[in-house]
Amino acid sequence: DGMNAQDLGKLLHREPAEIIKKLFMLGMMVNQNQSLDKDTIEVLAEDYGIQAQEKEHVNVSDIDKFFEEEENNTSYQAPRPPVVTIMGHVDHGKTTLLDYLRHSHITAGEAGGITQAIGAYQLKQDDHLITFLDTPGHAAFTEMRARGANITDITVLVVAADDGVMPQTVEAIDHAKEANTPIIVAVNKIDRPNANPQHVKEQLMNYGLVPEDYGGDTIFVDISAKNGTNVDELLNMILLQADVMELKANPRQNGAGSVVEARLDRGKGPVATLLVQQGTLHRGDPIVVGDTFGRVRTMTNEAGQDLESATPSTPVEITGLNAVPEAGDRFVVFDDEKTARAAGEERAKEAQMEERKQNNRVTLDNLFDSMKQEDMKQVNVIIKADVQGSVEALSDSLKKIDVEGVNVNVIHASVGAVNESDIALAKASNAIIIGFNVRPTPQAKLQAETDKIDVRLYQVIYNAIDDVTAAMKGKLDPTY
Ligand code: GDP
């Protein structure tokens, strides 16, 4: 096991609680005993270094004071509702399911139902709340994760029973696995005459999703999102899974969490949907959101009702920020506005630091150095090829590479062009993309350039394997 906040605290002569809170500021939620990855430790160390130098200019000690005040509460933990994301292949019924749920189980219903799409909503099943993120699609999900927000507890994978496992089904599985969220399979469209839910089960076993009646532990529910058949059963299964996970948070500390979506409204100014993940968010709270700041001026739920406070797992729409943050940005509440402003400005600096980190993305060219510097145990790779045979050949050969105990971890491999979802996954997992007889889509190409993702294209499998091996040994010929 690596170093945790406690160890790091000793090293940096700081209280572990302060380290944890500092990590919060940097967009990471950890507990004392969780081991930290090398990246995190470096960013943190660098951050403290920078602070030490600039202490006279920015009143950083105020920010630290905020953290100290928070620290006494961290031991208190209360159960919180699960946060669920729905993923799956296009047309398999994600939107239909979200719409059905919105209409059948709304909590805000008493006051006239959900009146606005704010990117997330809560519903009630037998007195238990479930939060749904209203933005289906694994690309958005992984984009957020790439920005540091891990806001999904459970993934519901929708697979149409008349269509079976399709390319985006596989993408969704890999994205969920990389994010370490358990998957519940909703086999949809069972009302269709040509529905074959059994076939879906058999197909998914090839991807490690083994149903309970086959000795596995993946929950499968046959549903019709259109008719609402078994949707209650699906919700009960989500609650069951949530129960097993013992999801908890501390509502007694200052609010903290992530941005689900944000926009500029002509009348209201910057508007952001926040998911509270820790503590309680109150109207009037001074707040830092990404590198924006302000005071929570208005706070409403998906029904447009005003809220005074919001506890963990509650999505709310707020106004009062000085600028528009980005989806996936983290937020924290401060005790006063002055500190919030100072912290907001510090966050802007951290954003620059993050950009520098982005320049350190793993590529074949810097692979050898990265492996040494970051003590890498595995090289993450995504494979895209024109035919399944090549996908498997490449994947099998790459997995066999072993350079001084470091090997290749294929996090996603499928047939098709390199798409934006691949870029998002590569970004979130610091992976290299290898394309065989395929090209990136124009959008993916642009995105790869922006995010500095190394996309390598080959026509000869051997060359790909040769390059990766050479790169891991530090003997890759420069391509320019
Ligand atoms: P998405 O792309 O995954 O969001 O898929 P949609 O929710 O837009 O659904 C695609 C199509 O499948 C629409 O025409 C839906 O009406 C239809 N559909 C979704 N769920 C069901 C279902 O349970 N049964 C049937 N028969 N059709 C469904």
TrEMBL record:
UniProt KW keywords: Cytoplasm, GTP-binding, Initiation factor, Nucleotide-binding, Protein biosynthesis
Region (G-domain): 82-230
Source taxon at top rank: Bacteria
Name of the protein described by the UniProt record: Translation initiation factor IF-2
Residues binding GTP, per UniProt: 88-95, 134-138, 188-191
Its biological purpose: One of the essential components for the initiation of protein synthesis. Protects formylmethionyl-tRNA from spontaneous hydrolysis and promotes its binding to the 30S ribosomal subunits. Also involved in the hydrolysis of GTP during the formation of the 70S ribosomal complex.
Gene: infB
Family membership noted in the UniProt record: Belongs to the TRAFAC class translation factor GTPase superfamily. Classic translation factor GTPase family. IF-2 subfamily.
Tr-type G domain segment(s): 79-248
Localization annotation: Cytoplasm
GO molecular function annotation: translation initiation factor activity
